[in-house]
Design brief:
Strand content: under 5%
CATH class: Mainly Alpha
Mean pLDDT: 79
Largest sheet: none
Number of helices: 12
Low-confidence stretches: none
Shape: globular
Helix content: over 70%
Number of strands: 0
Structural class: mainly alpha
Length: 289
């Protein structure tokens, strides 16, 4: 079991790094500067992700009597950058692709300063001591997000054809590795995960995700693609970053892993429901209000 606790975060980080690299293979340098030229969208995005969601997490943790490891997991998720796991169909030379790339980098860079301050503030307010250094966050984000993204973009610039051939297979490998991470936890930690049912954990995580989808959708602006991207991004947080921070600060590491895996499962279900709703509205020509 101890080996599993060590191995799962490593495989999870590899999964995310591969997915980011595949994302970079499709990105262009000008994609990353989109938000600089759209200050209104930049402000709304940061309000949605960096201000509203930590506040939502704080309200949930102050309202519900959650176990300390679960509270720390939700707090770190609310402060983590977005993962590069948005649906592939939303990124194919169309809906919000440039926005995804620009938002991914912007939020990742800001997380280096935001996470240490946010973790310290929330932990003080809730009485759960937790600390994380900016250097540790910078290292995690550089290895898991910025470095693979830049590497993928470099391959795209040097050999666009080769990059196009690599992007889909590597993205699929990253997805498979993610499943490999989740399934053992679901099996081995099933009794522990079941113990979280009925104590408010599922309610808190579900409310956190629904709040993210709703706030992101409302602040995404008039463009349907931007609404979808910001909704998914606000609700979806980097599990590798959250896991690394939470595991170091939680009293029960197994519960932290179980809570974050439970978040991944619930997020996949609820985000799929949101996407189905958004696509139905788009096909029928109804406004996404």
């Amino acid at each position: 079991m101890d080996h599993l606790i060590v191995l799962i975060p490593l495989v999870l980080k590899l999964s995310i790094a591969l997915t980011v690299f595949a994302l970079g293979l499709r990105a262009k340098p000008h994609d990353l500067t989109l938000l600089i030229h759209k200050p209104g969208l930049l402000v709304r995005s940061l309000v949605s992700m960096s201000m509203v969601m930590p506040l939502v997490a704080l309200i949930l943790l102050a309202t519900l009597d959650l176990k300390a490891p679960v509270a720390i997991a939700i707090a770190t998720l609310s402060l983590s950058p977005i993962p590069p796991m948005l649906p592939r169909k939303e990124l194919k030379s169309g809906v919000g692709a440039s926005y995804v790339f620009s938002l991914l980098v912007t939020v990742a860079v800001l997380a280096v300063a935001q996470m240490p301050v946010g973790v310290d503030l929330i932990s003080r307010l809730l009485g759960h001591p937790a600390r994380v250094s900016p250097g540790a966050i910078a290292q995690i984000i550089t290895v898991a997000v910025l470095a693979p993204l830049v590497a993928g973009m470099a391959v795209n610039v040097l050999s666009p054809g080769y990059a196009e051939k690599l992007a889909q297979p590597l993205s699929r490998i990253g997805t498979v590795l993610l499943v490999v991470c989740v399934l053992p936890v679901l099996v081995v930690l099933a009794p522990l995960a079941l113990s979280l049912i009925g104590d408010g954990t599922i309610l808190a995580i579900s409310a956190f995700i629904v709040a993210g989808l709703t706030v992101g959708h409302l602040l995404g602006g008039p463009a349907p693609g931007n609404r979808i991207v910001l909704a998914l991004s606000t609700a979806s947080r980097h599990p590798g970053v959250a896991l690394a921070v939470a595991v170091d600060n939680a009293p029960e590491k197994k519960l932290v892993i179980a809570a974050i895996v439970l978040y991944l499962v619930l997020n996949a279900i609820l985000s799929a429901g949101y996407l189905a709703w958004a696509r139905t509205r788009a096909k029928t020509g109804l406004p996404m209000e």
